[in-house]
Amino acid sequence: MASPGGDWQVTCGRERFEKCQKDEKFPYIVALARAVNSIKFVHSAMLRVGIEDSPEAKRGRLNSYFFASAILYEGFKLVRAMNRTFKHDEMFRNGLHAILRDKVAQQIEQTRLNPARNKAVFHFLPEFFAEMIELGGGPKCFSSLRRRCGSSPRRARC
Question: pTM of this prediction?
Answer without folding.
Answer: 0.74
